[in-house]
Design a protein that fits this description.
This protein is of the alpha+beta class. Helices cover 15% and strands 34% of the residues. The chain has three domains: 107-184, Immunoglobulin-like (Sandwich); 196-385, Dipeptidylpeptidase IV, N-terminal domain (Methanol Dehydrogenase, Chain A); 470-724, 3-Layer(aba) Sandwich (Rossmann fold). The strands form ten sheets. The chain has an eight-stranded mixed sheet, sandwiched between helices. It has a four-stranded antiparallel sheet with strand order 1-2-3-4, with no helix packed on it. It has a four-stranded mixed sheet with strand order 8-5-11-12, with no helix packed on it.
Amino acid sequence: MTAYLLFLATATTVLAADFDAARSLPKRTENTVFRDRVKANWLPDGNSFWYRIQTAPGKAEFVLIDTTTGNRKTAASLKELGLPENEASKTSAMSIELRRTRRTGESSSLKFVNHLGEDVDLFWVDEAGEHQRYGSIRAASEREQHSYDGHVWLITSRTGEHLAVVEAEATPKTLIIDRKGLTKAKEKPQKPAQPGKSPDGSYTVTSEAEEVPKRKVTIVESTPEKDLQPKTKVIDYIKPGDPLPKPQLIITQADGQKVRVARDLYENPFTIEGHIDVTWSPDSSEFYFDYNQRGHQLYRILAANARTGAVRVVVEETSKTFIHYSGKNWRHWLHSSGELIWMSERDGWCHLWLYDIKTGQPKHQITKGQWPVREVLHVDESNQEIWFLASGLRPTEDPYHLHLCRIKFDGNGFQRLTVGDGNHQVELSPKRDFFIDAWSRADHPPVIELRRSSDGSLVCELDKADASALLAAGWTMPERFVAKGRDGKTDIHGILIKPSTFDPSKKYPIVEDIYAGPHGSFAPKDFDRLLRMHQLAELGLIVVKLDGMGTNHRSKAFHDVCWKNLKDAGFPDRKRWITEAAKTRPWMDLSRVGIYGGSAGGQNAMRALLDHHDFYHVAIADCGCHDNRMDKIWWNEQWMGWPIDESYKLSSNVEDASKLQGKLLLIVGELDTNVDPASTTQVIGALQKAGKSFEFMPIIGAGHGAAETPFGTNLRNEFLVRHLMPAR
């Protein structure tokens, strides 16, 4: 008995130490990666630039680069480099005054809009000056954060550099995260009543539509600050299958005559606001507009005659599954030549095509191959060139790595301009004759190079990140792993993270961080502290993250797996990947596998215990869209289609609640305006009706991503430890 009590005391002490290590990881690893960010300040001659680089906590140096020679000169100040000190006002490397929260006023909120090309981390700086992590804000995305007047928030880079600090006010505000830190967003102007004025001023195009009632969702704030009684907030929240407006375009001519634009080719548009934007031809003879037919299987660019209102097709895309209108509808008008560059997946990969505007026929395919165009950066009409980012270009490299490329309008002269085996972020010089290339991987700190745009040749290495302090703080380098997917042919890519106390002679439970949203891919490709996963690993877990079939940025066939089938979530690929990894890693214990996720990842995590409880044993589902009929219209109809059919029911966690096996924790923020909180409470009702045991925790005062609050994070971690490491 004495030995058993001693064992319990020792296990409790070890567990407490692990939790302390996990909680302290963000602060311990903050600001521990140096020489990892270069923001060029180009001088007027266009042949040289300077930047300020952080070399240690509170220390930096200035660097002057001569692009003609590649000469790199360093100094402690701009003056030593022969530059005026007032140049320093242009640098983006800010001196951040970090203060703590000193008061808690009325309930409020902050909306962050991330304009950077990278994810950032969000922390609340509490009254003691401790940094409480509230998750991340993805690149090119928005996040609304509940707060209180007087609360202080810190935004850091992926490697821990302080980017900005903001104190919430009584009035909610929107802030843009950019290279200046935080910029207060301007009020959005009201959409003009006459949005389509022709270049010659003689026609105006407007759109009108009968008003369609919008579904309302009521959010209850149970515990308002300084108020005993609950408050309600009613928001517009359109769900799949809800009626949508059907706009009619009307041309008002110079003499006041009105012409209704024939609706034959745009009779059932997917539009929430009932408004259609138009683009005019330079000679004012016609205008162009998009028609995304509801159901997302037909997409057109249409041209309307400005005099008669007759409509013709310029581009038409059809699909038996879905057209990714929300992510792949880029175009560039070449009015001087009567041509259009258009992005299409019609050959099975995302590529660029050249169209004849007048005939509505493609002239030729510009890019081609078994790889996707990911983003167009610049169209150089004078040189007939397109600058773009693509992935999947090298068979021996991760197919998600972005590379800078250039090609002629006629499809000739293709060049890949970046070299390093990693994910590339590029910044073009003002004259585009040079570019700064910062590349990294999940297991490789950034390398920053200056290269020539003519051929991608190296001018000089600007800097190489130093992550030694990060590693010394107890952070472990992720491990990349590749295994074949369900078809035995397709490579599935992901990472594993081990605890800093890793002992290869021991057996460790496995936890998957899942997010299978079809709009993107999510296994990390850039060097990042990955705090959420590393904090979990510190508890004595092997944490994995990967992208199964049904996610984005591969072939159309890879993506199409999600069509009317969100419950699939790539699980056949995920289970195979984890199993293959364990074959050569005996320390991975396949008898103890957990999974967690939020939003679409919350839907995925619960689905693991409905359909795959032979493999997954513990799941945490945060703010899940458990039934796609309950979630926002644009995201769910994009992948599940319209009209609402049996596929919605077949992917519903609510409908399948009786299949639950394993340990489940459901979390939801009561103020979630992204996913209707009733999506979680309805699945709770179904579980109760089925007599299933589970745990539930609403997070009071929290919005979307409630599991990323300090309380939610601790709850999630404790739940995983309790059920995956019961002997501790």
